[in-house]
Every structure is written in C-alpha cells, then in structure tokens.
Description:
The protein is of the alpha+beta class. The chain has one domain: Nuclear Transport Factor 2, Chain: A (Roll). It is 43% helix and 32% strand. It has two helices and four strands. It has helices at 2-33, 40-50, and strands at 55-64, 68-76, 82-88, 94-99. A four-stranded antiparallel beta sheet has the order 1-2-3-4. The longest helix is centred in the first third of the chain and has 32 residues, at 2-33. Residues 4-22 have low confidence and may be disordered.
Amino acid sequence: MKRILSALALSTTAALFAAPAMADDDARIYEQNKDQYISQAKAGEIAQAHVKGASVKKVDFDHDNRLGAHFDVEVLADRGVEYDVSVDARTGKVLKSEVED
C-alpha cells in the first residue's frame, strides 16, 4: 500500500511540474511557426464576430493533439456571459464555441 501511495504522489508531483513546460512548448511552437498562423489579433476578431456584440478578454495560443494549433479566445458577451471560442491557428475557422462554466 505504501508503494502505491508513493507512486501516486510521485506521478502527481511530476504532472504538476510538467504543466508549465507544456505552456512553454506552446510559446515555442507559436514562435517557430507564426508565419503559418493567423495573428492573435485576428483570432480575437474572428471570435468577436462569432459571438455578436462580445468583447475580447484574452487570447492564448495552444497546441494539442485534439485540436492541433489553435487559439483559445475568451470573450464577454451581453449580460456578462463568457464564451470560450477555439479558432484554428492556420485557417481561422471556429473549431468550437461554448459558454464558460
């Protein structure tokens, strides 16, 4: 039982320290390939057009296995409703849009 708990604690600690490295990888990937991607400003404009009357709060570049290279855009719509909009970094296509919990 002690070994299982030790292994669990070790894997949890490793995951916590790996998270910042993933963010650094996203920044590196963006910098190395930014000529292939739309700009962060353009991603914000696309998300703002998708959610009518919204204002852009935050734009982050992300690269993962599920959506590939994309921007995660947080927009604030009427009545304080927040949306998370994912915009393809290469094409500018809206990949998903959902109300933030």
